[in-house]
Please model this.
Amino acid sequence: MTIDTKAMISITEANQNFSKVARLVDENGTAVILKNNVPKYLVIEFSKAEESMTASDEDVLAVSKRLLKKNKKAYEVLAK
Model:
């Protein structure tokens, strides 16, 4: 995941000024909250949450092909 440095905010500042976090999400699509200068939390729009949790058909197909290739012998034995 690529993190835009303009969308980063410290946890202290986020706690004191949550409207700034909301504004960052509106402008950049996400906001990253840092804890001890390390990315800890990701804030996204609620409408995009479901979208980000669903794998695309291409991703599922790629994983399926990789698993079939990796376990080809086991599948052949099971097919008998």
